[in-house]
Amino acid sequence: MPAEDGGIGFAGICNTSIHLWSRKIDCKGVAGWVLLRMIDMDKLTLSGVPTGDMLLRSSVVSFAEDSHELFLESQAGVFMINLRSMQLRKLLQARGSAICPYTSFYTRGCDIVGIDDRAKQ
Fold first, then answer.
1. Which of 53-62, 63-72, 84-93 bottoms out in mean pLDDT, i.e. has the lowest?
2. Distance CA 29, CA 67 (A)
3. Pair 43, 51: CB distance under 8 Å
4. Of these four, 5, 48, 76, 97, which has the most CB atoms within 10 Å of its CB?
């Protein structure tokens, strides 16, 4: 996943915190991981209700790069947290689901030459 500073990033969970790391190169040219941010999962709410034990024993299962959303799986199901707004949403009750986030878009364009010509005849 990309880091908040634009570099290579990594997300992991330790106890009840999400740790966001970034790959940095020091003044000697040695690369290492630097902790950028910690998110206390105990402080997250789901529709205004504290999550309590819902996120215990969570693991990171995926990341949506364009929307800055992290997908977590716990015993209570699959959750999505937006790393910018810190909003948490429960996506699935079931565990063991494959999460493959993707982004798609549609740009309305000009008519394709030739196809419309045949339709008018």
1. 53-62
2. 32
3. no
4. 76
